[in-house]
Amino acid sequence: MKKILSFLLCASMLGCCVLSGCGESSSDSGSSKSAESSKSEEKTEDPVKGGKAIAYTDKYRNVYQIFTQSFCDSNGDGIGDFKGIISELDYINDGDPNGGDDLGADALWMTPINPSESYHKYSVEDYYNVDKSFGTLDDFDELVTECHKRGINVIMDLVLNHISYKNPLFLEACEEVEKGNLDGKAKYFEFHEKGYYSEDVNTIKVGDYICEANFSPTMPEWNLTSSETKEEFKKIAEFWLDRGVDGFRLDAVKYFENKHTNGEEFLEWFVDTCRGIKSDVYLVGEDWEDDSKIKDYYASGIDSLFAFRFAQSFGEIVEAINTSGGQTLAKKFTSYDSKMSKVNPDYINAVFLSNHDQARIANALESKGLAAEKFAANVYMLVPGNSYTYYGEEIGMTAPNTESDKYFRLPMIFDSDNLPDITVDGASTVEAPKYGGVKQQLADSDSLLNHYRRIINVKLQNPEIARGRITSQQVFNDPAIGAYYIEKDGTKLLVIHNFSSDKEKTLEITNDMIPNAKVCADFLASANDAHLAIKDGKITLPAYSSVVIRPAA
Questions:
Q1: Residue 181's Cα: distance from chain center in Å?
Q2: CA distance 505 to 502
Q3: Is the pLDDT of residue 166 over 70?
């Protein structure tokens, strides 16, 4: 049945290229087509075939995020570890951008690796070591070395907002505060007299004083104003950058602001400090506030901030897919790029669908089918900047329970016939993705995984996609069509998405849009669909498909 439906869709799509279009408009097509037309269109070659992907060395990356504890367990103790990650690096990127069966991601972001009693490791007990459940510092060094051999940058999750109440530095501070001494180690933390904070703020009581603890009573807050704290942070950054780490993902920058400093000032200091240690360090921050606050933080000079508004099951990408609102989303992409680049001309957008704190994107899109999951990948990964793919997203992993974040962090499925035995904070429910694990999907040319691989390959063939700016929106007379221009160093691309779930769209591509236009990449709902081409100034996009158009050489 799948092959029959694919053939019918293909025939419908191909013939519609002979229909007339109307300027900047699109039309739904459904009439029967001649066998001759279909035969001719079926010969359209894959525009990606023969292209050369390049392994770039700048900050623009296709980032793969893993929850360190869950990715791969090398020693059978039920916990993911560094050697497990090393064993699967050739899946992430084998070092050859034009061969192999790897995903092609060229940066790796690991959730916190420092010693911690919490399973998520965001309460750090020692900033100068790694959690023994993951391995040793030597194991970590080996991981960094093996990543770099393959052209993979390593992004470390760094927690600067709070610390573990078991960290020796905090324990020393508590001993001093118990004796009434606030001039020693207490300066590193937010210690104040009782009554300083309102009752709705988490605090830790120490003698006659309290320490702020926004996230948890086991995670006291650093004092980001203190020169002592800043000197400590500089030492921490030097320790890891000297070991070969390429950058930091900064946790909860939303909370860098306190009563004595604003977050932008502290962030600017940390950015400058890190660049003084390693000039090409990459920094990305987590702040889920609205655009006005994101703009403020970009003024610090930080490379990236996650674009939360477009992500998550209730974000603007999923909303546009649910409502076929492509035109509206393209307008929002264009506006966002303009706003942030005015504040920081060197900003690198950080677009994603889901991460370790959110229900997996497949939970939101599963009912719409494989085509919708592929299309969502098109939409977020073709936005200029760095794309972030949460491990398992590329194979359609779902969370069996959306009530607790531990179910968003279950182990990676490399083989659906051999499920891993990894437990995450007591959660041991492991389900194979509907479409199979990595092994099964690599063998299926129509799989979600192979679709992700194609997108990354196209981005490595066309560097303007990631490195350009969205300069304007192209409005077609159809709300389902989302289109925008990307420009870089005099080269202009046109990205077009058909957000309709069931209707193909015929569009006119004029010389005013892209002179001497050609399709350089298409992304289709099925690998069995005929590839797209511009014929007589028109192109037909099937439902849930995308295309990148550029001037012919």
A1: 45
A2: 10
A3: yes
d(CA 64, CA 520): 25
Rg (CA), the chain: 25
List beta partners, residue 192. Answer: 210
In order, the DSSP letters of 77-131 are SSS--HHHHHHTHHHH--S-TTSSS-----EEEEPP-S--SSSS--S-S-TTS--
* Interatomic CA distance for residues 97 and 111, integer angstroms: 26
Residue 16 has pLDDT above 70, yes or no: no
Residues contacting 195, CB < 8 A, separation 6+: none
pLDDT bracket for residue 44 (50, 70, 90):
confident
pLDDT at 76 over 60: yes
- Could you report the per-residue pLDDT of 436-459, keeping only the tens digit for each? 999 999 999 999 999 999 999 999
For residues 220 and 210, give the distance between their C-alpha atoms in angstroms, rounded to a whole number: 10
The 3-state secondary structure of 271-328, one letter per residue: HHHHHHHCCCCEEEECCCCCHHHHHHHHCCCCCEEECHHHCCCCCHHHHHHHHCCHHH
Q: What SS3 class is residue 461?
A: helix
Above 60 in pLDDT, residue 42? Answer: no
Instruction: Catalogue the active-site residues.
Output: 251, 286
Contact assessment for residue 341 and residue 334, using Cβ atoms and an 8 Å cutoff:
no
Asked whether residue 209 carries a pLDDT value surpassing 80, the answer given is: yes
Residue type present at position 196: Y
* Helix, strand, coil tally for the chain in percent (to 5): 35, 20, 50
